[in-house]
Amino acid sequence: MKQFTITENDANQRLDKFVTKVCPTLPKSLLYKSIRTKNIKVNGKRCEISTRLTKGDSVEIWLKDEFFVQKAPKYDFLNASDKLTIVYEDENIILADKPQGVLVHPDENEYNDTLIGRIQRYLYEKGEFDPESENSFKPALANRIDRNTGGIVIAAKNAEALRIICQKIKDRELDKRYLTVVHGIPKEKNATLTGYLEKNESKNKVYLSSKKTDDNRTIRTRYRVLASKNSLSLLEVELLTGRTHQIRAHLSSIGHPLLGDGKYGKINEDKKLGFNRQALYSYKLSFYFSTDAGILNYLNGKSFEVKEVWFADKLFGDGYKKILK
Questions:
Q1: d(CA 49, CA 58)
Q2: What is the model's pLDDT at position 73?
């Protein structure tokens, strides 16, 4: 038998979700049976699958040791790079400046050196993250951006901050702005684009249409031109909806593909110019809460930004920054 005391980071989740995390190899059928037969109890009493755990609860699990998490002698995140650029940090969140080319989460090709791995290593070495003292929570990302897109990604240091930020993103109470360089000079200096996007999962590519169907989703993208030079334009972009590859596909659909975009652009031409990744950066994040944000209320009205975006500075100097202010 193992006993777990619910911490603040474990609270507010269902019993079955918690048990799945501490017993990762436990089959669901046995999990549900163990709850019915009282081999899993909360505060010494019979419980339900949907029992909501609170801080201080005691969870008793009468199962074989083989089902419980086995502590590894070395944590995987320690294999991640120690390079991490932080835009802002407090006791609840980190705003990290993700380099282009770095994954936010592991995939089948890269497991160790990811943004979340770097953040967990940083907090572990700083003494703010101790896996041994956590039952089910690890510092986690609240949003993500493509591998070849750079910029601000939000990481939560505790479960409450993660829950709040994820809800605020869902409710669109955060404002994210991007800088990008596109081919050509848009006729309209300020515009809001509307289109209909459908994703092809097998090709990991999206397609746009001018008509709504049952299979596509409405997208809206707002941009303003900051500068133009040598048949290239620097744009600030605001996502009014958030869909896969939205900025890249939407701007390409109006004849202005992103510089360095290998999927929707002119990559063979752009490589000759030294651009083999899309010139796209999530450079600014603002918090505009219209509802209570609990422990994160202090962030309301604050904005954070990456001061140096390499491709914008390289191609247009820093004159565009006066327009952004």
A1: 15
A2: 52
Closest Cα to residue 177, out of 90, 133, 235? 235
Average per-residue pLDDT for the chain: 93
> Which residue type, as a one-letter code, is found at position 63?
L
Whether 158 and 9 have beta carbons less than 8 Å apart is answered as: yes
Q: Which of 177, 324, 150 is nearest to 242 (CA)?
A: 177
Task: Look at residue 263 and give its three-state secondary structure.
Answer: coil
Query: How much of the chain is in helix, strand and coil states, percent to nearest 5?
Result: 25, 30, 45
Distance from C-alpha of 316 to C-alpha of 324, rounded to nearest angstrom = 13
| Under 8 Å between Cβ of 232 and 183 | yes
**Model confidence, pTM:** 0.81
Q: What are the pLDDT digits (tens) for 202-239?
A: 888 999 998 999 999 999 999 999 999 999 999 999 99
Report the distance separating Cα 195 and Cα 246, nearest Å.
10
For residue 71, pLDDT beyond 60: no
From CA 109, how far away is CA 98, in angstroms rounded? 18
Phi, psi (deg, nearest 5) at residue 146: -60, 155
